[in-house]
Amino acid sequence: MGNIFILDVKRIAANAANIRSLVKSMAETDKFEYGCKKILIPQDPSQAGKEQAQSYIRSLAGFKVKSKTVIR
Fold first, then answer.
1. Which residues pair with 40 in a beta bridge?
2. Residue 54 and residue 13: Cα distance in Å, rounded?
């Protein structure tokens, strides 16, 4: 898979709509500033986690987005 670098972290307490807006804004910033080509979204293994991941993928239309199941 290669190296993964975390270039920026944001920590906020907000409602779901504001979090989605922040994620999209950060995706646009990361693409412009760092040339990021892919976005990886963590996915909980439950059905609700699958729906949430698909919702993020839809909201990030125009970006190359993939979800990966998180195993705990």
1. 66
2. 22
